[in-house]
Design brief:
- By secondary structure, the protein is α+β, with helices and mostly antiparallel strands.
- It is built from 6 helices and 16 strands.
- The protein has helices spanning about 80-90, 125-140, 220-225, 250-260, 260-265, 290-310; strands at about 15-25, 30-45, 50-55, 65-75, 95-100, 105, 105-110, 155, 165-170, 170-180, 180-190, 195, 205, 235-245, 265-270, 280-285.
- α4 (about 250-260) crosses α6 (about 290-310).
- The longest helix has 22 residues, at about 290-310.
- The N and C termini lie far apart (about 35 Å).
């Protein structure tokens, strides 16, 4: 395992494993972020119609203070079944909260809507969750595959003028460091709006002009009254921040709230009535750091991970990607 000064992928953060299951033909899949020995968890849910599992358990006032995995899945609400497969695989490997008569893995998750991209009848389920979890263990320490994989398989962006002017997006990641503190982010980018580089403000992918050759500006089109709102509740950007910081549940929640600002830095417009956005935090507890420093670093990592999700995608299912427009 590399030293924390040489970490380039979230899979290289000590104690963190990440794996995918991809159903390419149906344009869907799931991604699982695993901390087998348990992390401190937090969450921020800003979506109008989120599909989530075990988010209430992450509230600071609740008594369970360990999180073993976060599942990011396609399939809309049907994709929540993938979390059951992750829990079963972790139990099989002997990980989970000791409740006396058994070990119960604590698995939180969120889903995005990709049913309109590929097949609406095929969704990640128990088998895909189990496979993604097993892949996380098998690929320990290896760089994370990005783009059209796992939860990013059916992701699209720039949908305010309808699917014919939208673009392909995918799953991205980014790791940032400040001294010994490390924050990494994984994001499946399925936003209603455009994706912008959070450092320059330049558009990466999003709504295209009517001829499809260039990028338009979703906000300007929306304000001009020409946007055709997509089907309701069909967009969601779901993300997980992993850090080696030592945090309480209340502090992890605050970091999730701060990191959610990355959506505003990288997606325009964001948190619309058609987006169901969620950010999880997993803290392994190796390094002492001020909460505000962790939050600021997490925000930077997540904003860049969102842009990476758009850059790493390849054109598929009738949608061009950023690389196709040059």
């Amino acid at each position: 395992m590399p030293s924390e000064k040489n970490i380039e992928s979230v899979t290289q953060i000590p104690g963190i494993l990440v794996g995918h299951a991809t159903i390419e033909d149906a344009a869907t899949g799931c991604t699982v972020i695993v901390c087998p020995e348990g992390a401190t968890g937090g969450v921020d849910v800003r979506g109008g119609a989120p599909a989530t599992r075990e988010t209430d358990l992450l509230r600071p006032e609740e008594t369970v203070d360990v999180l073993h995995a976060v599942v990011l899945s396609g399939g809309s609400a049907y994709g929540l079944a993938a979390s059951c497969g992750v829990a079963e695989e972790l139990e099989r490997r002997g990980y989970g909260l000791d409740v006396g008569v058994a070990r119960v893995p604590i698995v939180s998750g969120a889903c995005l809507f990709d049913l309109a991209c590929g097949s609406a009848n095929v969704r990640p389920g128990v088998e895909e969750g189990r496979a993604a979890c097993a892949a996380a263990f098998e690929r320990a320490g290896k760089p994370l595959a990005r783009g059209n994989v796992g939860a990013g398989t059916g992701c699209t962006v720039g949908k305010l003028a309808g699917p014919e002017r939208a673009m392909k997006s995918g799953l991205g990641e980014r790791v940032e460091r400040a001294g010994e503190l490390v924050c990494g982010a994984v994001s499946a980018v399925n936003a209603c709006g455009d994706v912008r580089d959070p450092d320059t403000g330049k558009m990466v992918a999003g709504m295209r002009t009517e001829d499809g050759a260039r990028l338009a500006d979703s906000v300007e089109v929306l304000l001009g009254g020409f946007a055709r709102m997509p089907l309701e509740r069909t967009n969601t950007t779901i993300s997980c921040v992993v850090t080696n910081a030592r945090l309480t549940k209340a502090q992890a929640t605050k970091v999730a709230q701060m990191a959610a600002d990355a959506y505003a830095h990288a997606i325009s417009p964001t948190h619309t009535t058609n987006d169901g956005d969620t950010v999880f935090v997993m803290a392994t507890g190796a390094v002492e750091a001020p909460v505000d420093v962790v939050g600021a670093l997490a925000t930077r990592a997540l904003g860049r991970a969102i842009a990476d999700g758009a850059r790493q995608a390849t054109g598929a299912y009738g949608y061009p990607a950023a690389r196709d427009l040059g």
